[in-house]
Structures are given as C-alpha cells and as structure tokens.
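Researcher: Here's the sequence for the chain we discussed earlier.
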Amino acid sequence: MLIRFNPECLARNRHPQTIIFAIGINDSQYINATDNPRTPIEKFQNNLVELINQAKNFSEKILFVGLTKIDEAKTMPVPWSPEKFYSNDNVAKYNSVIKKISGEYNLPFIDLLDLLETNELEDGLHPNSDGHKKMFLKVKEFLLSNKIVQ
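Model: Thanks. This is the structure I predict for it:
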C-alpha cells in the first residue's frame, strides 16, 4: 500500500474527506519460521508512519481499522502456500503497533481483534459474509458515534 497510495490518489485526482486504512495482516505473516517475518515489525512501524505522512497530503481525517484474529487450524500453514504461516500471536503484535502509532499521531483506531469467531472466517484468514457484516457494523457504529460520518 505504501508504494501505491500516492500514485493512486493522484491518478484519481481525489482528495478524500476521510481515509480509512485496514492493513497489516499480511505483514504479520511469517515464512517458514517465526523469526522470518514477511515484514519485520520495525519496518512495519516505519511504513505506517510514512503512510500517515503521505495520507496527510490528502486529508487530516485519517483512521485505522485494527486486525482480526485468524483460525490457526487453517493458517499454520496456509494451504495455498505451505511455507507461509499466520499466528494469532503475530497478528496481536502487529495490531498493537497499529494501535500504538494511531495513538502517537492522535488518530482514531477501531479495535477488531476480538470481534470475529473462527466460523466467520472463510479460509481461516479472510472473513466470510457474516464476518464482513460484523466488521461493517462495528466500523459504521464507530464512524457514526464519533461523528466522522453522518
């Protein structure tokens, strides 16, 4: 997203009123071993800061949606790529970085970590229609109650 954000906003000639980021679960993935993350946590943190800086060129209203837990029975490893793993421990670590950076920049953070049940995950990682509906309702309620949208 860091690579695509500026060019896509510029190409669309858009200045959104509010920017909502929902990123990070793929960054929490590790390859073959827990000490081989797809995106090291420090780099992830730096990437979030850079993304915030880029987003501020388009809007001051920026918020982050947190990560959801996964079903480790289906993601340790993932069937479509057996060298890749997702664990709830890693998801929680990356989620805490998003929450921390949001706080440091005084940006709203919508915590979804304990929202979904394993039966609301299509493949152990991606929400099914029930999971998406639950996430939508939580985000919608947050946006309305905090007067971010009307």
